[in-house]
Every structure is written in C-alpha cells, then in structure tokens.
Fold:
Amino acid sequence: MVRLIDSIEIHRKNTAGKFLVFGEIRLKKFEQKFSQFIETGTSIIEISSNINMKANIYFDLRVFANISIISEKLPSGMANTEIKKTLQMKSLGELSKDFERLLEPESSRFADVTLKCSGVSIPAHKIILSARSPVFAAMFANPMKESRENEVDITDVDVSVLRALLVYMYTGKTSDLTSTSAADLLLAAEKYQLRDLKTVCSHYMMLTVSFQNVWSLLVLGDLLSEDLKSFAVDYICNTCGEMSVSEGTEEWKALLIEKPDLALKVSELFA
Structure:
C-alpha cells in the first residue's frame, strides 16, 4: 500500500492585507523550509513537499508554520524580496528594543558585571560586552581583577558617554548626537575597538562640519582616523582659500601650540 502526500493546504481567513506563512515541513530525516504569502482576498495556499514515499511505509508528516500580518501600508507592487527585507528590518528593530531593555534598572537582576564611572554603578552583561568589544572580551576571558570581582572601573570616560556607548553596544543605535558627544564617543569607540561606532561618529562629524569645528576634526583625525583627517584637510583648503584666512583664528593659534607638526603640514598645503 502506498500513501502519497505531495502537498499541504493552509486555510486562513484573510481580511487585513498580506500574511506571510513560513516554517518547516519535517518528515523523518527530510526537512523542507517554506515561505509564501497570502494575498488580500485569498484564504488558501498550497505548500508542496516533493517527498517520494516508499510502498508499505507510513510516515508522520509535521508542518511547523508561523503566520505574520504584513502592514496594509506596504505598497501593493512591492516585490517579495523587498517585503522580506522590510520584515527583516522590523525584526532587527524589535531585537534592538529587547536588548535595550536589558539596560533598564528593572532588568539589572540579570546582570553579571558592574561598570563604575564617576561614582555611578551601571549593571551590564559580560556576554554582550565581550561579543561587541575585543577589549572587554580579553578582560573577561583572562584572570584579571575585573573578571574575578565582576567590577570594571571606567576612569577616562564621562558617565554620559559611557551610557551612550552601552546603548550602541546593546542596540546598534546612536541618538541625539552633537559635535561634542560624537567626538567623545569616537574616542571611547577607539579605546574599546568598536570599529562601526567610529565610522558612525566620523560620518556625523563630517556632515556637521563648520569652519569653527573643523580644527577639532583635524586633530581627532590625526589621532584616530586617516579618513577624518583627509576630510578636514580638504575642507580647510576648499573653505579658506588662503592661509591668511586661518592664521588669525583662535583655532589655528591653538593648533600651533597643541599640534605644531600638524599645523606645519596644513600650512605647507597653501605654499
């Protein structure tokens, strides 16, 4: 006797736009993933299994499916790949929010390390800090004081910068950046080897550059980022036109005192 099962039907009343149905068909060692959409006005889809059955053998066919509502605001002509990207971004956004909740005081009972900064204690999680920062990973992987006592003293970063740093490490988000906070975060990102955060901060400073703050960008770039330094030099050359324009500014005078070698390199560009 042969039992053939080559398709599965899913019935779902659909009145709210598009649905995404996805999951796995499992049959002994056979596994087949599926992902299909139920369009507006449709109540049935068919999922083909393409399984060859052997005679006189019965199998238990199980389907694990999830049904997700897709917002009606999505353009009707949007391709499936675009819809999947939209859903993925939504999922990543929810993941980011979930991780951000770990920084809330009510979630501190799950923390296993305390960051101490300017008299403030901030609960955190070794696994997340280690996954995001090679510096923290090395700190907790070795028999150091921080690993034994589950406390880390942060002495060279302001507490507001540390909180912003943690938000980025947990969520990948930066918010309410200013020229000053972006510069502070860039320094912190360099210390803890957060390469993507360095890029974010550098990009923000490039977008908000002015003749007044370009000199601080130049100094930071000389210290941390060749791209930021090159951008600052180009901006100065294109904006000033002549060196005499810069020589009378307080920023230039400060650069001569703090970074004479860098000031010399800039002045040579106008020679």
